[in-house]
Amino acid sequence: MLSGDRRALARVISLIEDRDESLRTIIDAIYPKTGNAFVLGITGPPGSGKSTVTDKLVAEIRKRSGKRVAVIAVDPSSPFSGGAILGDRIRMQSHSGDADVYIRSLGTRGKHGGLSQSSKEVVMALDAAGFDWIVVETAGVGQTELDILRLAHAVCVVLVPESGDGIQVMKAGLMEIADLFVVNKSDRPEADKLVRELTTLIGMNEKRSAHDEWKIPVLKTQALFSQGIDELFAQLQEYRAYAQEHGVLAKRRLAFIEDEIAGIILDEVSRSIRRNLSNTTGRKIVSAVYNLLETPHQASEKFYHSKSDQKTLK
Amino acid sequence: MLSGDRRALARVISLIEDRDESLRTIIDAIYPKTGNAFVLGITGPPGSGKSTVTDKLVAEIRKRSGKRVAVIAVDPSSPFSGGAILGDRIRMQSHSGDADVYIRSLGTRGKHGGLSQSSKEVVMALDAAGFDWIVVETAGVGQTELDILRLAHAVCVVLVPESGDGIQVMKAGLMEIADLFVVNKSDRPEADKLVRELTTLIGMNEKRSAHDEWKIPVLKTQALFSQGIDELFAQLQEYRAYAQEHGVLAKRRLAFIEDEIAGIILDEVSRSIRRNLSNTTGRKIVSAVYNLLETPHQASEKFYHSKSDQKTLK
């Protein structure tokens, strides 16, 4: 995989998705090769055209920089909302002749949970495999999607006038995660109104967080006609340079590492709790709660301090 | 709240949503009053009409049984997908004159994470407040939604022919959680085809899990015209009696309690990890990972065994 074999890469990603037992060995082996990629998150409500933006941006990155690009399309609710992402994959075949573009979808595969942890590890694998840009496109703006975007060095939020007004953007928590806004399908009426609303809200936010010198741009695109994509790429390059220089990349990489470490520990603790819940002591405690003799909080304290738990948790 | 004051109930739910510090005291006080309600989850892909099914079912429960009903509409991606749920709330005002129906939406309020834990606690509050039926309607079939539905005693999956075929239903993990299927808008072409596909898939599943004697029904409804809702209510009553008799309710209540205890512990461990990551030892470990001297797994082991961690985790 490290020498650029695409099939090996695909296999590693499948092992990550399946939470295979060999995972730890693999991650330990590839981790020292990471730390070079720029990870861009692209999100937005359904119908905003974020997939088209991604598609055109990939073409622009290839044309302007010649760098290798990987795209992972993450959809926590596939296969039901899978229509769009399936469509993407077909459309994305415009890059299929390009050995320096790698595209992969990540869904829940019927087993739920763990998508956020898997996404981080897939990003590590792509980073180790030498991709300079890793674009993480999420299917929507739900809780799981926003959790996943914590792994990005930059987040681009794609909106259309129809998807809502500035207040909704703020309520959805998108103000807090956006480093760039794109108003797509900008030929539609109301596009300028949304741009103005966003600009005002950004201005208000900036007063609150004066330490950050990056001025969040609000760009207009018509991605379907490749309009505005050159400016988007230019702004991303500028952001990347800014983030490198001002320690933002370092800060986000540290946050990524903390999330990954916490994720590994929580996975392990979670398994340990499940084991302890089903042993003799555990079943007694659960049964006391079932019979309303104890509350869940009281039980959790017993658990946390119970002998078997101490042994397992060290 | 326990004496039926709706305003007190609304305040308690807000405290739960805000993860207020008084939470533990409140849950400890109300928990002994729980264990009487029947918790029904209703889910389905967007556009399946599950809100209409919920609305009509509430009316049917009220008419047939006279029991008190609470509805919580959970949407992990509000406010963007909030259109539908807002619509519901307006439509649900058909029950607004009825003091024995309580309706509440739960969204992410801009802060992400914790919706699954909050939902469990809101269900406890409604149970303690004396609602006999608690209907939990989710906005879609994403990872978060399916996690949330683990709290239900029964799950009703609402589909329409347009939302996909049987194979997609299986892939989305809905076969594993459904206790009843509803094919809504059943006047549309292809409805019977979906009913046949689901029935076949259920038959195949039953062979695998022969211990379960409940035969999952596939019902046809046209909820907008209240058609098929009487049959749905009848099947739910039958399921409730079956589940009571065969220990299914007991099993699900035990699973709920285990989830709640695990959730409380994981919340606490998570906070403890975050504290430890930012103390002197923690920062040293994270920095070693940042500099590629250690892998996240190696670091997580140090953490897990580090002095400060032991002290906090006990």
Description:
The structure is a homodimer of 314-residue chains. By secondary structure, the first copy, chain A, is α/β, with parallel strands linked by helices. Chain A folds into two domains: 6-246, Rossmann fold (3-Layer(aba) Sandwich); 263-313, no CATH class. Helix content of chain A is 54%, strand content 12%. The first copy, chain A, has a seven-stranded parallel sheet, sandwiched between helices. In chain A, strand 6, helix 9 (191-208) and strand 7 (218-220) form a beta-alpha-beta unit. The two termini of chain A are 36 Å apart. The interface between A and B is large, with 72 and 72 residues.
Which features characterize this protein?
homodimer, seven-stranded parallel sheet, disordered C terminus, 314 residues, 2 domains
Topology (SSEs and partners):
The structure is a homodimer of 314-residue chains.
Chain A: H1 6-17, H2 23-30, E1 38-43, H3 50-65, E2 69-74, H4 82-91, E3 101-106, H5 115-128, E4 133-138, H6 143-148, E5 154-159, H7 166-171, H8 174-177, E6 180-183, H9 191-208, E7 218-220, H10 229-245, H11 248-277, H12 280-290, H13 296-305, H14 307-313
Parallel strand pairs in A: 1-4, 1-5, 2-3, 2-4, 5-6, 6-7
Helix pairs in contact in A: 1-5, 3-10, 11-14, 12-13
How would you summarize what this structure contains?
2 copies of one chain form a homodimer. By secondary structure, chain A is an alpha/beta fold. The first copy, chain A, has helices spanning about 5-15, 25-30, 50-65, 80-90, 115-130, 145-150, 165-170, 175, 190-210, 230-245, 250-275, 280-290, 295-305, 305-314; strands at about 40-45, 70-75, 100-105, 135-140, 155-160, 180-185, 220.
